[in-house]
Amino acid sequence: MTFQETLQSLSPTATAQLQTFLEVLQQRLSPTDWERLQTFLERMHPERRAAMMAFVAQRETHAPAVGTEAPDFTLPQLGSGEWVQLASFRHHKPVALIFGSFS
């Protein structure tokens, strides 16, 4: 199954969201990097490629749009017993959210 066939095998909503994401990605990448990405995707096992594309489409469907207000949440502050609420920073400071793994 080719990259385009995988794209067509998704639901119409997922396909539209993924197509929009890929168009933005193509605009942001150099032509060489875009070709490398397509080659990488073409060489993936079809089931894995389909799962990855479905995940990206779902993420793009449910993620807040760029420029919209982030949903509020509360997390424990690292190194203390205190909790921090995202909404407490609104209209005061820019906030950078960085998620990672230490494993």
Please characterize this protein's 3D structure.
This protein is mainly alpha-helical and 103 residues long. It contains 4 helices and 2 strands. The protein has a two-stranded antiparallel sheet. It is elongated. The two termini are 34 Å apart.
Topology, element by element:
Layout: H1 3-9, H2 12-28, H3 31-43, H4 46-62, E1 74-76, E2 83-85
Antiparallel strand pairs: 1-2
Search tags:
103 residues; mainly alpha; two-stranded antiparallel sheet; 4 helices; elongated
Structure at a glance:
The chain has 103 residues and is mainly alpha-helical. It has four helices and two strands.
For the sheet with most strands, the description reads: 2 strands, antiparallel
Rg from Cα: 18 Å
Given helix and strand content, the structural type is mainly alpha
Shape assignment: elongated
Order of helices and strands: HHHHEE
Mean model confidence by pLDDT:
80
Number of strands: 2
| Order of strands across the main sheet | 1-2
Q: Work out the oligomeric state of the chains in this entry.
A: single chain
Termini Cα gap: 34 Å
Taken as a percent bin, the fraction of beta residues is: 5-15%
What percent of residues adopt helix (DSSP H or I)? 40-55%
Low-pLDDT parts are: none
Contiguous helical run count:
4
